[in-house]
Design goal:
Blueprint: H1 8-14, E1 21-24, H2 28-39, H3 47-63, H4 70-80, E2 84-87, H5 93-104, E3 110-113, E4 127-130, E5 134-136, E6 141-143, H6 146-153, E7 166-169, H7 198-207, H8 210-219, H9 221-250, H10 261-277, H11 280-292, H12 301-349, E8 352-353, E9 356-357, H13 359-364, H14 371-379, H15 388-396, H16 414-428, H17 443-450, H18 455-461, H19 466-487, H20 491-504
Parallel strand pairs: 1-3, 1-4, 2-3, 4-7
Antiparallel strand pairs: 5-6, 8-9
Length: 513
Amino acid sequence: MDLPEVSCSEIIGAIQDKLPALFFVFSRGRTEILAQELGRDWDFLDAREKKIVGSEVRIAEAEHPGTFSGPVWRNLRRLLYQGIGFHHAGLLPPVKYLVEKLYSSRLLWVVFCTETFAAGVNFPAASTVFDSTRKWDGRDFRILQNREFFQIAGRAGRRGFDPVGYALVRVDSRFPEQTGFFNEKEVEPVSGRLAISPNTVLSLLRYKSDNEIDRFLNGNFKMHQIKKRKVILEQEIKIVGERVSEIESTLCPDSLTLSCPVERIKARRQLKRLKWKGRNKEREILQKQLSSSSARKCRETEKCREASGRLKQTRNYFQLLKQDYNAVSEQALGIFSEYKEVRDLLEKLGYVNGREFLPRGLFALELHVQEILVTELTFNGLFEDIEPAQAAAVLAGVEYIPGRNTRVVKLEIPALRETFALRRSLIKMGVPERFCVWSDLLGALAYAWYTGTSFSELLEMSSLQPGDIFSIFRREIDLLRQIERAAGEDCGLAEKVRTIRSRLDRDEIALSF
């Protein structure tokens, strides 16, 4: 029988002398639900503190009219007056900033937040509470890694205030494995990752000699880890190889042949298995081998059986080590192979000719996101042949991967169909899909925003939260800056890009705080 779940109100009651607390939740929506649940039972602020909170709220609302609106803000506003808040990526930056400011001023005693809050060193707490230690990683639910757990738990303990920090975990009785195993001595190591993007290759070709490129590919952190792993495996292979030889030396000359009593017993068992499986041909071969070999009497049968078992295990381990070593060696070669593949692709597409940079290559050199896709869009007339609102619609989808439940109202935008066709043709030409990440889902939002639609109307057009829309447009604005820089001496292109950027960079999207 499952035990009833302990409510967050009961948890806070148990640790009320260990506040303020950061209550970590791995779901945006649940941060709001739990904050409202706590707000029904708790009010941490006195009249003077409520007055200060009210002043800060009114100042924020006056500075950013239109931002502090909607049902989410109304719920949060009420909770702030009780010393309770919630914080997640779906909130607009001024709203998150207000929560952070009130928390830093010790006017919020409990903040329900997602794990991104754990990265802020300026937000310590007396206690951290885990709503769960299971999180969705994009494919499945999994237990937190040691590194993730201690990153979050490390928020507990304020220097100068708390001699001890407290980390608590609410354990669901259905998942008892959620806690009891986190070990600070077993924190997972940081893994090196070298992404060979078109910009990486173009930058190396532009600014490095062949020897410098070789040193770069050989000397990065990922390669350092690979080389270190190879040395460890080489040493282990040597030790285990010597162990195999040592065990083999203890066996008699007939061991592991069908003259050995131990091996004959194994062979007879194998005959039975082959008969059950109907593998008659293999069974006949083994039967002939048994008949043609003479059994030898052995007084050390048990000793031989034990030694042959150890030999088999050791040999299996030896083979696994060699497989690991080969895989690691392939990783090392893979970095150079990937570099060559991307370089060959850029030559094929007409970006470079050896060390000579062609117009497309010079343009892509200034880009840092989906360089090939954005370059091809530009050189295929995105800014010259298509109206600016449609160009804004196309660029909004660059490097965007929609969630399973993301919903956006559709608009008929011809440029989106043309971009889809261009992307498909690039993939047919051999451009990897990771260099053509694009979605038409956001096109309607960008088109509407460019043509003057209000932010509140954008929210009605989609299932996206305010913070998501803000991030999408800030990313597009940054991409437009890159394109403007890449335009170089093409003043006409630069001016068109600036026009699109200025139309997007307004009102809630242009907020400063």
